[in-house]
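Same chain as my last thread, 279 residues:
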Amino acid sequence: MIKLIAIDMDGTLLNSQKEISDLDKKTLQKAAKAGIKIVLCTGRPKSGITPYFDQLNLSDEEYVIGNNGCLTMTNKDWQLLHTEGVDAEDLEALEALLADFPQLNLVLFTPEANYVLGREINAQTKRDAEIEFSKIFHTDLPSFKEKNIPVLVPIFIGEPRILDAFQERFDSQLTEKYNTVRSLDYAFEALPMGVSKAKALARLAQDLGIQTEEIMAIGDGNNDLEMLEFAGLSVAMANAKAAVKKIAQVETSSNDQSGVAQAILKYALNSSRLRDEQI
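reply #2:
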């Protein structure tokens, strides 16, 4: 029996227009009313999650895992339950990697805003902020440190072909201290070691008294791999990357065909009574 559904956002719950379909909304409401906990698990920061979660109009307490596992929140007053982050003294070494890649930004994601290091804010960073409704501030590292703000995750952002070269050069070095993930073609993340959607989901499930086999996870991207491997039932979107489809137990329709709703109806609301009720 499924008691918790962990759902990625971009490429999964959100369609190509960055919208949630009416069928997905109604099906999630139906699942919540049936007592299933709904957890959005995403690389997005708080600012890029809350407007969408509010659209779901879920009456019971539900949960969000953001920044690829660096923060866990409840939708009740958006209270932070758990956070992970990187040490301030590590930031100088990360910024130094930009020396040969001046077109990239190092974006410091904090609980409430993003701070951009680099010569100027590039187009990809601006676009990412628009998509995620984030406040961004161009700064230098000494000025940022004076603010004494915790950094959840540093992300290198820029043109994909330049980021490819950056990742090829520095990935092995960074993986000695960070959990690196290419969450988007323009974003290369240096998560704190051991942090992932899967780790945050495991901790939340333990808090809620839910067993692994009672969890269904739905995703499409590389940053969903560990979450899908952790869940009792793993579901890949039809538009998922090949690596995701390879490890997932089942596949659903694409994000433009309400694949989340199709998976929930088939695998979570699978009693005849729940499945056949009017949505």
